[in-house]
Write a structure and sequence with these properties.
Order of helices and strands: HEHHEEHEHEEEHEEHHEHHHHHHHHH
Helix content: 40-55%
Pfam families: Fer4_16, HEAT_2, QueG_DUF1730
Number of strands: 10
Strand content: 5-15%
Number of domains: 2
Distance between the termini: 78 Å
Strand order of the largest sheet: 1-2-7-4
Protein name: Epoxyqueuosine reductase
Largest sheet: 4 strands, antiparallel
GO molecular function, one term: 4 iron, 4 sulfur cluster binding
GO biological process, one term: tRNA queuosine(34) biosynthetic process
Radius of gyration: 23 Å
Number of helices: 17
Keywords: 4Fe-4S, Cytoplasm, Iron, Iron-sulfur, Metal-binding, Oxidoreductase, Queuosine biosynthesis, tRNA processing
Bound molecules: iron/sulfur cluster
């Protein structure tokens, strides 16, 4: 069978199973990325979540010895939700970023890639493939760029002409020499909106991110957060969308093609206070199917505490005092103490002073001091 014809059949089949865009790329190594990745490593700009060595991240043949082409897929996700719940005093809510709306996209895209692989195998003898979504070694964005899914924006996201940057990406390395597609021309022009809007300067130059300074990454860490991030995070529980929201290429883009990727408003904007006492089991039952739960409940709870402090939510004080005194996790005890000080009530002040006498952990004690200092500043 001519590979051009098969390509058309693959695209048509892909559409029928909810793949919104498919592109084909040659499986040569991503030689131009090697020096960039090395520089990122040497600068300490990586998130630490990357998988594999630089070679594994840039050489498709290390994952499929007879790699000939890579099929890149994109699935569009919504940017707006209907009927978002009200965020009011007394029942403040947090926020999960859009990439955590609906079912975990890793499962959704891996399922589609599996179907696609089965389809191609039914058409061609000896077909071999290896698929990846986000957590694989290859860079989804580099593959998508080469395969003509979209151009790489200054915000480091792939921007498609059809769906903006609101797309999930995945790829399949194959042993079939499919003819490659043309890359999409860079469309950022003179715009610098994402660089200007980034509150931490994490976009250190166009197309270059210091992940350590990116709020999306910061929300996923598990330890004590530096104060500068606590002030910026607002009510963000997981991820951060600013560099996508300000992008003119995303203006008016809001795609609703996949019911499984639609947000459940009460889940992606959950009430903060109940999160502080949620059990592991409840957390798994409620949030386990979302991409944003992959780091477990601790970072979400820490971020919820920071969000309550941001709102100066006085109704949270009794629960924060309980956490400060009783929670076995120093990060939670310490962040709660800091939040109590920031909210600044008489009860809170007395509780921090009393808890100081029993606390052994140096970092928690430091957070208590910060909380007391905050209190003194605001009163
Ligand atoms: Fe490019 Fe402007 Fe979008 Fe940034 S905001 S990715 S510079 S178009």
């Amino acid at each position: 069978m001519a590979y051009e014809t098969l390509k058309e059949e693959i695209i048509a089949y892909g559409k029928s199973i909810g793949i919104d865009k498919i592109g084909f790329a040659a499986a040569n190594e991503f030689a131009e990325m090697k020096s960039r990745l090395k520089l990122q490593q040497d600068s300490g700009y990586q998130s630490g979540f990357e998988k594999g060595t630089i070679e594994e991240r840039t050489e498709p043949t290390l994952h499929l010895s007879d790699a000939q082409s890579i099929i890149a897929i994109a699935v569009a996700y919504p940017s707006r939700m209907k009927n978002p719940p009200k965020n009011k005093k007394g029942s403040r809510r947090g926020n999960f970023c859009r990439a955590s709306w609906g079912l975990d996209y890793h499962h959704v895209l891996n399922g589609k890639l599996e179907q696609l692989s089965t389809f191609i195998a039914s058409k061609i003898a000896g077909f071999e493939s290896r698929s990846m979504v986000d957590t694989g070694e290859l860079s989804d964005r580099a593959v998508a760029e080469r395969a003509g899914i979209g151009f790489s924006g200054k915000n480091t996201m792939i921007i498609t002409p059809e769906f903006g940057s609101y797309v999930y990406l995945g790829e399949m390395i194959t042993n079939i020499p499919f003819p490659p597609d043309e890359p999409v021309d860079d469309g950022c022009g003179d715009c610098t909106k994402c660089l200007d809007a980034c509150p931490t300067g994490a976009l250190v130059e166009p197309g270059r991110l210091n992940a350590q300074n990116c709020i999306a990454f910061v929300t996923q860490t598990k330890g004590f957060l530096p104060d500068k991030y606590r002030e910026i995070m607002g009510n963000q529980l997981y991820g951060f969308d600013t560099c996508q929201v300000v992008c003119p290429k995303n203006k008016q883009v809001d795609t609703h093609l996949h019911p499984e990727l639609e947000p459940e408003p009460d889940l992606v904007k959950p009430e903060l206070l109940p999160l502080l006492s949620i059990s592991n089991r409840e957390f798994k039952e409620r949030f386990g199917s979302m991409a944003g739960s992959w780091r477990g409940k601790k970072p979400i709870q820490r971020n919820a505490i920071i969000a309550l402090a941001h709102y100066k939510e006085t109704t949270a004080i009794p629960e924060l005092i309980r956490l400060m005194k009783e929670d076995p996790r120093p990060v939670i005890r310490g962040t709660a103490a800091w939040a109590i000080g920031k909210i600044g009530t008489e009860d809170g002040l007395a509780a921090i002073k009393q808890a100081q006498t029993n606390e052994q952990d140096e970092q928690v004690l430091h957070e208590m001091e910060k909380g007391l200092a905050y209190y003194t500043q605001v009163t």
